[in-house]
Amino acid sequence: MERCLASAAPFVDEIVIVDTGSADRTLAIAESYGAIIIHHRWQEDFAQARNVGLEHATGDWVLWLDADEELEAADGEAMRESLATEKGPLLLVELINYYGADPPDPLRCHILAHHRLFRNGIGLRFVNPIHEQLNVNEVITSLEPPPTIKARIYHYGYMDDIRLAKDKSGRNIRMLQEQKKLPDYSPWIDYHLASEWLTAAKYDEAIKDINLAITRFLQIGQLPPSLVYKLKYAALLESGHAYLMWPAIDKAIQLYPDYVDLRFYQGIALLLRGNLREAENSFNQCLAMGETCTTHLTMKGAGSFLAYFYRGECRRLSGRLDLAQEDYKETLKQNPQFVEAEQAKLKLETGRKGSEVNVTGSHT
After folding, report:
1. CA 278 centroid distance within chain
2. Which of 168, 62, 73, 205 is closest to 123 using CA atoms?
3. CA angle, 154 as apex, 305 and 128 as ends, to 5°?
4. Could you give the CA distance from residue 196 to residue 168 in angstroms, rounded to a whole number?
5. Is 108 in contact with 175 (CB distance < 8 Å)?
6. How far is CA 163 from the centre of its chain?
7. I need a labelling partner for 207 at 20 to 30 A (CA). Which of 61, 106, 119, 217 fits?
8. What is the DSSP letter of 350?
C-alpha cells in the first residue's frame, strides 16, 4: 500500500481509498498521505467497492490503482501533461505484470496497454465482481483505440510470494466458481478460472475452461480477445499437448497477426514436432515483430531473447552449430541470467551437440 501511495501522491490532486475491513496498518498509511477513506462493507464484489470510490472522486480524470501496484515516478509529470491536452475520454498506460520469484525482474513480466485513466462523470463504471473491468464498450462507441500515453504501472500481485502469502488463488477460484452459478455470467469468468487452474498446474481443468470461454465469447457474438487464445496455447504447451494446437493456432494468428506471443507458441509447437525449418521461420518472424504491440498481453522475451534461444535450438538440432552458438550468445547478451542458454552454449563449446529439445513452463 505505502509503495503505491508514495508513487502516485506527487502527481494527483486527491486520493480516494475504499476500505473493506482492513486489519493491518492500511488506514494509518492512507491517512499519512491525506487520503479520503471510504469505509465499505465487503460483499464479495471488487467492482462494487471500486464504484463506491468513484462516487467520491471529484477530479476531472480518474487514475485507478491496486494496492500492489506502483506508478513509475519518472512518468508522473508527462502523465499530467497528457491529461491537460487530451480531448478524448480514455487513455491507456503500460501495465507491467511481474511474475515468478522475488525480486521483480524486468525480463520476467507480461506487458499490456491497459485502461487506467478516464474522464470522471461520463458513465464509466466497473463490472464483474472479480477481475473487474471498465464498461468501456457500453459507454464509448468510437471504433478508434484510445491513445497510449507515456506512463508505466508496475503490478506485483502475480509474484509467487504475494500469491502464496495471501492465498489469492484460493480466494479467486472460490469467487469465480460462485459467479459461474449465475445465469448469463461473463465468458471472462471462464477465462480467469482457466488462468487460475494453469497457475496451479491443473491442466485438464485449464484447457476445459479456456475452451468454454472461447465458445461462450462466440455465442454472444464477440470475437474472443487475443489473450484468451494466448492462455489456451500456453496451457496446451505446458500440459504436453502441443499436438492439439493444430490447425487452430494458425487460425488464431490469422485473427491476430500482430500478436508476437501466438507466433512464439507456434514456433515452440513446431519445434516439438520436429518441423525445424518451419519453427525457425516462426522465431524469425517473432524477432522481426519485437514486443512493441502492447495492445496484446505480451510476454517479455517472445520477440527478443526467448526467440533467439529457440531459434538456436532449431539450428542446433539441424546441425548448424555455428549459427546456433551465435543465437545462444545473443540470448545471453539480452538476458545474462538465462540458464538454459548458458548450458546450451557450454555444451557446444565442449563438443556436445545433443538431440533433446529444452522447453520449460516458464517460457510459456
Report:
1. 27
2. 62
3. 110
4. 10
5. no
6. 15
7. 106
8. T
Burial (CB < 10 A; 0-12, 13-18, 19+), residue 204, is exposed
pLDDT in tens, 179-188: 999 999 999 9
Strand partners, 63: 117
Rounded Cα–Cα distance for residues 234 and 359 (Å): 12
Rg (CA), the chain: 22
Taking only the tens place, the pLDDT of each residue in 119-135 is 999 999 999 999 999 99
> Which CATH number does 2-163 carry?
3.90.550.10
Indicate the domain borders of the chain.
2-163, 225-363
Comparing CA positions, the residue from 67, 66, 53, 48 lying closest to residue 14 is 53
244, amino acid identity: L
153 by DSSP, 3-state: which? strand
Closest CA to 28 of 40, 41, 15, 37: 37
CA distance 169 to 160: 11
Distance (Å, whole) CA 338 – CA 309: 9
**Best CA proximity match to 123, nearest among 141, 142, 139:** 139
Which DSSP symbol is given to 75? Answer: G
Q: Which three cell numbers stand for residue 121?
A: 462523470
Q: Which CATH architecture has domain 225-363?
A: Alpha Horseshoe (1.25)
Q: Are the CB atoms for 102 and 164 separated by under 8 Å?
A: no
